[in-house]
Design a protein that fits this description.
alpha+beta; DNA primase DNAg catalytic core, N-terminal domain; Dna Topoisomerase Vi A Subunit, Chain: A, domain 2; 4 domains; 5-stranded antiparallel beta sheet; 5-stranded mixed beta sheet; 25 helices; 16 strands; binds zinc ion
Length: 603
C-alpha cells in the first residue's frame, strides 16, 4: 500500500471538524468556547476531556491524552494512521490518491461512489415526481391523510416511485447510469437472469419511497411503502443488500437524530419509518427505527456510540411486545439500560399523537418505566398466576431476558423488582436466571432467544474459503473484485455471500495483519465468529489460481442447483406447453454455460 501525500493529509484535516467527529461518538457539552465530555481514554466521573474547535485538537486534563482528529481515530478506534486518514477522507468525500497508484482500489472506489450517486439521483427523481407528477396524486393524498406537510416530504426527501418503471429506468439512463450499476445498487434486476437483452425491472413502482441514509447522510437505499389496498406486495419493500446497503447496520433517521440523541441523553426507538417521521415532526427528534426487520445486535452497538440510554416505543399489541423483547435482549447484552413506553392498547405512536398530541406523548416518555416493570404491566393482567403452568411460563420468559443483561448491578436490581412483583423469593428467581445463563445454546432451540446467544453466521464452505483468501491475499481479493458482477446471483443465494461482498467492498490491506484485525472488529459479531472458525487456513502458493478454482466451483454448484429446480418444474404434469418450451430452452442455455466451466467441477 502506498503512502498518503502530506498535502492530502492536510486537506483531509481541513475538511474535518473535530467537534463534529468526536460528537458523532459521544454526546458533547459546550463549555465556553470549548466542548467537553467524559474522557474515553480513562475512567472518570467529571468531564475533563476538552475539545478545542479553534485549534482543532482534544486534550484530557486527567490522563493528558491529546491529539488532532487523526490522533483521535488512531487512539479511539485503534486504527493504523493510513486507515484513520482514509476514514476521515471518506467522511469528507475526499479521494485519496496514494503515491503508488493502485488501479484496482481506484476502480473499487469509483464503483462505490457510482452506487451512491445512482441512489441519490433516484431519491431526487422520486421526490420530484411526488411533488409534481399528476400521476402521483394518490401518493400526495396518502401523505396528507397521515398529516405530512410538503416541508416534511422535503426534509425527508420522500418520493413516489412511478407506476411505469420504464420512466424511472429511462431517467437513470439519461443521467448516464448503466444497467449493471442499477442492479448492483439493489434497485432492481434483470427481467430474465440469463438474458440481459430482455432488459431490467425496478423493484420499486407505485410506492412511496423513503430514502435510507448512512451515517454521513448519503442515500444508500430505499424502503418503499405500498399505496393501494389491493397491492399484493409486502407493505414495505427494501433495497436488496448491496455493497452500500445492509439492513442490519442501518437505522432509519439516525443521520437526523444523532444531535438530538446527544441533547436528550437517550434514543427513542420505534417500529417503522412513518412513526419515526411523525415523531420527529412532533418534536421528538431523537427517534430512530430499524428497517422493517427486527432490531439487531449491530443496531444496538451503533446506538451505544451516541448514548447510554434507550427507550422503546413499539405498537401496543403482542407483535409489538415481541419486537420490544428482541430489541431489549440486544441492548441489554451490551449494557444499555432500556425503558419501555406504555402506549394504550391498540395505539401506535402515530395514532397516539393524532389523538392526544405531543404534550401528552412527552408525559408518556417522561413516565416511561424500566423495561421489566412496563412488561409486567402488560403481561400480568393477562396471566393467571395461580395456574402453575402459566406462572412457570412467565417466569421462564422473564428469566431468559434477565439472563441477557451484561450489567451485573442492573441485573441484580431487576431480579429484585421482578421477585417483588411476582411475590416469589429473590434467591429463587436468581437461581432461575443463573440456570438460563448456564444453559447450553443447543438446549434453547425452538425459542425466540436462540439467536441472542451469538451464533456464528452460516457460511458455505467455498464462500468461507474465499473470505479467508480475500483476507490473506491482496491479489486474490483483487481478482475476486473483478468477478463480482458475474458472481452477483450466486452470492445472493449462497450462505455467507453477503459477508464475502462486505469484505470485497472494503478490502482491508492484507499485508498488514493489524489492518485486517481492525477490519474484523468492525464486522457484526456472528460474522467475526464465523471467520474465526477457520482462520488458520494456509495461503496457497498461487492465491489467484485457488480463487479461480473456488469461483468456478461456486458458479457450477449454483447453476446445477438452478438446473435441478427447473427440471423439477418440468416434472409438473399441468405445465402449459409454452412454459415448458421456455424452461427447456433455459436448461439448454444453462448446460452450455456449464460446459464452458472447468470440467473438473461438474458432477
Ligand atoms: Zn483522560
Amino acid at each position: 500500500m502506498g503512502r498518503i501525500p502530506e498535502e492530502t493529509v492536510a486537506q483531509v484535516l481541513d475538511a474535518t471538524d473535530i467537534v463534529d467527529l468526536i460528537g458523532s461518538y459521544f454526546p458533547l457539552k459546550r463549555a465556553g468556547t470549548n466542548f467537553v465530555c467524559n474522557c474515553p481514554f480513562h475512567q472518570e466521573k467529571t468531564a475533563s476531556f476538552n475539545i478545542n474547535p479553534a485549534g482543532q485538537y482534544y486534550h484530557c486534563f486527567g490522563c493528558k491524552e491529546s491529539g488532532n482528529a487523526i490522533g483521535f481515530l488512531i487512539n479511539y478506534e485503534n486504527l493504523p494512521f493510513i486507515d484513520a486518514v482514509k476514514k476521515l477522507a471518506d467522511r469528507a468525500n475526499i479521494p485519496i490518491i496514494e503515491d503508488v497508484y493502485d488501479p484496482e482500489a481506484d476502480k473499487r472506489r469509483r464503483r462505490i461512489s457510482r452506487l451512491k450517486e445512482i441512489n441519490n439521483e433516484a431519491a431526487r427523481y422520486f421526490h420530484k415526481l411526488l411533488l409534481k407528477s399528476p400521476d402521483a396524486q394518490h401518493a400526495r393524498d396518502y401523505l396528507k391523510s397521515r398529516g405530512f406537510s410538503k416541508e416534511t416530504a422535503e426534509k425527508w426527501l420522500i418520493g413516489w416511485a412511478p407506476k411505469n418503471s420504464s420512466i424511472f429506468l429511462n431517467h437513470l439512463k439519461a443521467k448516464g447510469f448503466n444497467g449493471g450499476e442499477f442492479k448492483n445498487a439493489g434497485l432492481g434486476n434483470l427481467r430474465d437472469k440469463d438474458n440481459p437483452r430482455a432488459g431490467l425491472y425496478s423493484k420499486f413502482y407505485d410506492q412511496l419511497s423513503f430514502p435510507i441514509k448512512n451515517d454521513y447522510g448519503d442515500v444508500v437505499g430505499f424502503s418503499c411503502r405500498i399505496l393501494r389496498a389491493d397491492d399484493k406486495r409486502g407493505k414495505y419493500i427494501n433495497t436488496a443488500d448491496s455493497p452500500l446497503f445492509n439492513k442490519s447496520n442501518l437505522l432509519f433517521g439516525l443521520d437526523q437524530a444523532r444531535k438530538a440523541i446527544g441533547r436528550e441523553k437517550f434514543a427513542l426507538i420505534c417500529e417503522g419509518q412513518v412513526d419515526t417521521i411523525v415523531l420527529h415532526e412532533a418534536g421528538f427528534e431523537n427517534t430512530v427505527s430499524g428497517l422493517g426487520t427486527a432490531f439487531t445486535e449491530q443496531h444496538a452497538r451503533m446506538l451505544k456510540r451516541y448514548t447510554n440510554h434507550v427507550t422503546l416505543c413499539y405498537d401496543a399489541d403482542s407483535a409489538g411486545l415481541k419486537a420490544a423483547d428482541k430489541a431489549f435482549d440486544h441492548l441489554t447484552a451490551i449494557g444499555l439500560p432500556v425503558k419501555l413506553v406504555h402506549l394504550p392498547a391498540g395505539h401506535d405512536p402515530d395514532t397516539y399523537l393524532q389523538e392526544f398530541g405531543p404534550d401528552q406523548f412527552k408525559e408518556l416518555l417522561e413516565n416511561a418505566r424500566d423495561f421489566f416493570d412496563a412488561k409486567l404491566d402488560s403481561l400480568l393482567p393477562q396471566t393467571n398466576l395461580s395456574s402453575a403452568s402459566e406462572r412457570a411460563e412467565l417466569l421462564s420468559d422473564l428469566s431468559k431476558s434477565v439472563a441477557q443483561m451484561s450489567d451485573a448491578l442492573l441485573q441484580d436490581a431487576t431480579i429484585q423488582i421482578i421477585a417483588t412483583r411476582l411475590r416469589i423469593g429473590t434467591d429463587e428467581f436468581r437461581q432461575l436466571v443463573v440456570t438460563q445463563k448456564n444453559k447450553p445454546t443447543y438446549d434453547r432451540r425452538g425459542n425466540d432467544h436462540v439467536e441472542i446467544k451469538t451464533q456464528p453466521t452460516i457460511l458455505d464452505k467455498t464462500i468461507s474459503y474465499l473470505c479467508h483468501l480475500s483476507l490473506k491475499s491482496n491479489e486474490a481479493a483483487e481478482y475476486l473484485c473483478e468477478q463480482l458482477d458475474s458472481l452477483y446471483e450466486p452470492l445472493q443465494e449462497t450462505p455467507g455471500g453477503n459477508l464475502l461482498q462486505t469484505i470485497l467492498a472494503r478490502r482491508p490491506d492484507t499485508s498488514s495483519s493489524g489492518t485486517v484485525q481492525a477490519f474484523l472488529l468492525t464486522l457484526p459479531e456472528p460474522d467475526q465468529l464465523a471467520l474465526r472458525q477457520d482462520f488458520n487456513i494456509e495461503i496457497p502458493e498461487n492465491p489467484v489460481a485457488s480463487a479461480t478454482e473456488a469461483v468456478t466451483l461456486l458458479l457450477a454448484t449454483h447453476l446445477q442447483k438452478k438446473e435441478a429446480a427447473l427440471r423439477a418444474q418440468l416434472a409438473d404434469p399441468n405445465l402449459p406447453p409454452d412454459q415448458m418450451i421456455l424452461i427447456v430452452e433455459e436448461i439448454k442455455h444453462m448446460q452450455e454455460f456449464l460446459k464452458n466451466l472447468d470440467s473438473r467441477f461438474i458432477r
